Fold:
Amino acid sequence: MTIFFASAFTPKTSNVHEVEADIVDLAVATEFLSTLVAAVKAGDLVDVLKGEGPFTVFAPTNDAFAKLPAGTVENLLKPENKAQLVAVLTYHVVPGKVMSSDLKNGQKAKTVQGSEITVTLKDGKAMIDNATVTTADIEASNGVVHVIDTVILPKM
Structure:
C-alpha cells in the first residue's frame, strides 16, 4: 500500500514523497509522534507493531503526552514500569483495520490490552474515550493510524 503524506501528516524531511510504511515506520517519520515512538521502543513493542496485523492504532501526539501530569511519561519509561507502559500503549491498539467510516456512535472495541474503548461521534468529530481524533485514516501496510489529542488510559 502506498502512502501519500498530507498536510496534517508531514514527514521530517521537507519534500513530500510517497512511502510504503508499516505503522512504526509511519510514526518514526512523523515528528509530532516522537514521544509515542520512544514509548513503543521502551515497551519493546516495535516488532509487534511491525507485525502482519492488521492493527488500528490511536496514536497520541507529543502534545497529548505533554498533557499528562508532570513526570508521568518519564515514570512510565523507567524499566521497572515496563508492564504499566505496555498496558497503556496496548490500550491504544485495536486488532483489525478500523477506518473512520466504520466507527459508530456508542461503539465499543476491545483493545489489545484487554479493556474496551468507547467511540463517541458528535459534531462531526470522533472521540475515543476522552480523546478527539484529529487526523483519521492514515493507512499503513499493516493497518491504519488515527491521531488523537489525548493519551487514553485503561483503568488500572
In short: The radius of gyration is 15 Å. The beta strands are 3-4, 18-19, 55-60, 93-95, 108-110, 116-122, 125-128, 131-140, 143-148.
